[in-house]
Amino acid sequence: MTTTERPRRGRPRSFDREAALDVALRLFWTRGYEATSTAELTSAMGISMPSLYAAFGDKKTLFRETVAHYQQNYAITLDAEREGATARDVVADLLHDAAMTYADPAKPPGCLIISATANCTQASDDLEAELRAHRDANIRALERLIHSDIRAGHLPPDTDAHALARFFGATIQGMAQQARDGATRDELLVIARTALSAWPA
Predict the structure, then answer these.
(1) What pLDDT is stored for residue 80 in this prediction?
(2) How large is the angle between the packed helices 87-102 and 185-196, nearest 10 degrees?
(3) DNA-binding residues per UniProt (predicted)?
C-alpha cells in the first residue's frame, strides 16, 4: 500500500518574519491601514492568505506588529534622558531628525504613527486610538521635560509648558504631512529652524 503525504499548510520554511514585516510596514506607511488590503499584503510579502493568518493572526495584529517594528527601526525618538541636555536641545534634535527622516528618499515619506490611521472608519477606532496614544505620550514626555527646565531656571517661570509641548508636537506632525506632500529635507529643515526660533528666551 502506498501513501501520499499531504502538503503542509502555513508559512514556508524560508519565511523571514523581519523581512515580511518590513514589506507590510512600507505598504501601511505609504497607503494607510484601511487602504491596504490583505490581498496586497500577501502579494507583496510573497505568502498565501492562510500563511499570513498563520504567521500574524489577522490584519490588525499584523498592523500592530508593524507599528512596533517601525518604532524599533525607523521612528524618531525623544531622548528625554540625555545627560546635560536641556528641553531645547532635545527639541532641536527632534526637529532635525524629523526633517532628515520624514523626507528620506529611501523610505516612504512622513511618519507611520501620524498618518497610517487617518480617515479610518469606525471599525478601526481602536487602532486610531492606539496611535493617538503614542503621539500623546511623546507630547506629555516633552511637557515634563519643559517643566523640569522651568524648575532648573533654564526657562522663564511663566513658560506655558503644556502649550509649548503642544506647539512642537503640532510642528512635527505638520512636517510629516509636508513630507507626504513632497517637501524636501531642506524645506523641512527651514521649518525646523523657524519653529525653534519660537523657543522662549
Answers:
(1) 72
(2) 160
(3) 37-56
